[in-house]
Amino acid sequence: MAVAEMRKVYLIAEKSLRDSIITRLRELALFQVEPVDGKSLASSLKPPQVQTDDLEKAISHLGWTVDYLEQFEDRKPGLGLFPAKIMVRQEDYLHWIKNFDWERTFQRCSEYKSSLEKLGEEKNNFSERLHLLHHWEELPLPLEKLGEGRYVSYQPGIVSREDRSHLERELDNLKTTYLVILKEEANQLYFLLVYSKKDSEQVESIFQKLRVEKVLFTEVGSPRTRITELKETIARIEKEITDIETESRHLTGERIKLMTLHDHFYNLLGEKKVALDTRSSSYTFVLEGWLKKKDLSNLKKGLGEFSSLEIVVRSAGDKEGQKVPVALSNPRIFKPFEVVTHLYGLPLYIEIDPTPFMAPFFAIFLALCLTDGGYGVVLALAAYIALKKMRIGGEGRKLLWVLFISGLVTIAVGAVTGGIFGIQFSELPAFLSPLQRLVLFNPLTQPMVFLVIALCIGIVHILIGISLEIWDHLRNGRITPALLDEVPWVLIIVGGVLFGLGRLGHLPGFSSTLGIIMLLGGAGTLFLFAGRSSKNLFIRFGKGVYELYGLVGLFGDILSYSRLLALGLATSVIATVVNTIAKMASEIPLMGPVLMVVILIAGHMGNIGINCLSGFIHTARLQFVEFFGKFYLSGGESFRPFRREGKYIALS
């Protein structure tokens, strides 16, 4: 239940074995490669000359082809946030990387893409021309006849409908004009004006005055003929587009092969980049990196075939503490909750892994936010079905396991609070009456009991956080900070609890006396020793007062756990309201029963979804702020062993 112990490893071997050893390291997936730093024993050696341009170009082309074909492939259900990789058999993988002509497929897709873009532009152009001509379908003249003639001009134009009367009145003053209204649409008027060429200046003045839009055509022939021709052209283009899309759809069967080649080249590029991290002399090379201590024997065994290889191992130095990669090592039950730790940030190598201490509280807090046993069943069942039926990546599976475990805990919480889908156990049929023996309190009728439970759990949560900080100080030899900075807070919290319970009569009378002694002792220690690093009495006094001011923050932290009450009550109240509305709807003639079922399903599913989301957020907040804030810094870098990786596939 801790951060895995790491070792710095140097691999020294004949230069001719470099590529073989790197390939073997990838297969073992145990060793995180590190670039050689300036203080390394290999810093005086030279970096190798490695070419990666061809691989990077191939990866780029393959990735583009995969993305292009994706739009023509039928989608399968999955979680986009946590995509799962496609499983490929080893024999298929080996066959495809040797025999599949991916460049031919890339070339075809490039041609298809180029053709689609060209045809798309042509279609848009013809569609715009068709849209324009639709307004002038009633023109009685061929389009090439429009414009200025020798004696007469034919000018099509567009004017707003509200200016129609103004236009007609202005044109009436010119005796040699003839206005034909061709179409009225929305707020616009489409017209053809025939006028004598000698009146051109007056017509132009009228057009400018009324903001008339003159229309020019580049088409020839009658509008109706051109409309028919354009429709035929667009139909031909659409058929060509459909044919190309059909051909592209036929290529989607090769998409998995393209993915395989992409990841194959990606891994080859990874080996080249690892080679760039080595340093070489004329005859030898050196590669350095990190390894889990427990995997050291496996590394030596896996590299045993290289007889000339020398493996040098050393422990992480104190100065390297914050640079050492971090790998979490937790029991199976706590493993899923590592996803929550990752949300906040990994611990430093020298820190405590908070996962096993946080996990039980996370499940309990989320369960208290839901409070309903029926909701726990739905949550656990939905998570379990998703785990079994959906293709989801590693982090997504961990999140679903968190929800599954939290759902089981919610069932237990629902049992002690006596609620199932908003129905109290006392309202269930008689044969289920034994369930009432499990009930400890009802959140709706005993909210103060719920509040006390939430605050008590919060106090325990905070005490564990402070205790972990004490443990961290002690294991690193920092006894004074542990005793003078952290233990006093434990005394204050425990003393305050004893004092309160003693005064309320829940504990013997001496408990309140003991509690006040502990409380004052802790506060006095903080006041006297908070500024111990300074010799100035005024500074020490100020730091002591400031440290005592932290009591306000501590009180606020404890009160933060009241959000569990608020969310738990909200879930219960909404569930009860849904049932009440459904019962009222059931009394409606004919449609009542159907409406009741719809309300129950939609209402409870919505309640589960909303409160599960808000419960997860607030539960995470209690971990990140109130709990982690007591002992946890984070900032660690994840341990990433050199292994076969890829964007798309995994070998089965």
Automatic annotation (TrEMBL):
Highest taxon, organism lineage: Bacteria
One biological process term in Gene Ontology: vacuolar acidification
Keyword Transmembrane attached: yes
Keyword terms: Coiled coil, Ion transport, Membrane, Transmembrane, Transmembrane helix, Transport
Cellular component GO terms held in the UniProt record: proton-transporting V-type ATPase, V0 domain; vacuolar proton-transporting V-type ATPase complex
Coiled coil: 227-254
Membrane topology: Multi-pass membrane protein
Segments passing through the bilayer: 361-387, 399-424, 444-466, 487-504, 510-530, 561-582, 594-617
UniProt keyword Disulfide bond present: no
Pfam families (UniProt xref): V_ATPase_I
GO terms for MF: ATPase binding; proton-transporting ATPase activity, rotational mechanism
Subcellular location: Membrane
InterPro entries: V-ATPase_116kDa_su
PANTHER family: V-TYPE PROTON ATPASE SUBUNIT A, VACUOLAR PROTON ATPASES
Family assignment from sequence similarity: Belongs to the V-ATPase 116 kDa subunit family.
Protein name: V-type ATP synthase subunit I
Organism: Aerophobetes bacterium
